[in-house]
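Hi, here's the filled form for the chain we discussed.

Project: internal
Contact: R.S.
Residues: 363
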Amino acid sequence: MKNVAIITIYDDSNLGNRFQNYAVQKLIEKRGYECRTLINVKRYLFRGLKSRIVAFLGFPKKVADKKRFIFKMESVIRKFSEKYIRQGEVIRFRDACKIAESYDYYITGSDQVWHNWSGTDNELSYFFLRFVPPHKRLCISPSFGRETVPENLRQQYIYGLNGFKHLSCREESGCRLIKELTGRNAVLLCDPTMALTSEQWDEISTKPSFELPEKYILTYFLGDAPEAAIEYVKEISEKEGLPVINLYNMDYPEYLSVQPDEFLYLVKHAEHFCTTSFHGCVFSIIYHTPFSVFERNDLKGMHGRIDTLLKKFGLESCSADNDDFGKQCDFSVVDNILEAERARMYDYLEMIFADAEKGEDVQ
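And the returned structure, exactly as it came back:
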């Protein structure tokens, strides 16, 4: 049996990151391959170190409390990774060549793997899979997380993208960027999480251990909750007479230990879900849960993937930026679109692995 290395951002502080990693793993295993996710050593070993030091020794108190919150959230999400993600080598970006012969194929994605968060050449080379022969380089729904690339890195992006025989992206803005940089067309794919059915996600969904109201509003905001979101949640809570479950919010410690598999259950059974999270929208769509999405305060300009998602499913009115915001979510055509997107994903995987099996490099 041939094996595949998943090259993705490995982030135990981000639910969506862990869910997309799990989904890619399931898609590859369904094709009959063994797979492992490589772990970047800096994120895996050192990310929580500063949080721990500040949490227990640092001042002022507000900073320490926030670091404690991050540390606790990472600990909770890490349990999910250890339980569900088949982990491979812990590696530095610059040392990737050491495992170049360890796997038959290397697949980068999903998530914002082509953003270049560290701003280093080593990261770009790693996520463009420059350390392995071209015929071993595969990508599945990668994202740039940006509308343009820095001018000083433009040639490296062109070089890296042209190292793939087949290109895909999970948002329209990314496909446009690939076309602009290389002149090539990329396949627009759904996020891998959407390639799994609600029944497949139910397999790992767990009811939370705490007492759950019969009906509730759920919130999950990345970074600080936008003021507009706070007001909206208060409004619908009072109007509908429903309690609010605020996930991963320092002001609500009773919900800080919610596991990712419990998150799935909470989204599925919520009366309404308010979020700034792309994957929060994804699971709302999969589970037909009415939802409202707001733009993040801390990362402006990264709303493109959410815009693409809502447009694809005709759910633009779920965005607070839309003139029709507040209309009831219409899920009547969602399942048909999901089936078509899953078929596109499976066709794409069939194509890239078939060509990889031939061992042909990029022309």
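Let me know if anything looks off before we file it.
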